[in-house]
Amino acid sequence: MLVQRKGSEKGRRRTELCAAYMLISRDYLVEAAKQIHMALDSEVNEDYEAAFSYYKNGVDLLLNGVQLDPNKERREAVKRKTTQYLKRAEEIFITHLQDNLGKGSSHLTCH
């Protein structure tokens, strides 16, 4: 009986861990989706600083969450989408924010 309990204890712990990983993977995707949605809304409203920030937050969530995601196919899909979001954030930065960065910090430039 004692051996059976140890085996069933290990099985239960494994099931609990799998459930925890599934919850984590769902949560990171939901939270990242919220950030990306906010980025898209900010773009529509031409608030590019906010859009860039939301994309950055979403990408951070995806990069951290994908490492713990047990589903290989989902990990690959997340990596593809993350690449797309990074490219969009880069486009926003280059097109709308890069020039403004230098204007606000003129005291740091050498003449």
Automatic annotation (TrEMBL):
Pfam families cross-referenced by the UniProt entry: MIT
Signal peptide (residue range): none
Domain (MIT): residue spans on this chain: 25-103
Domain of life, per lineage: Eukaryota
Protein name: MIT domain-containing protein
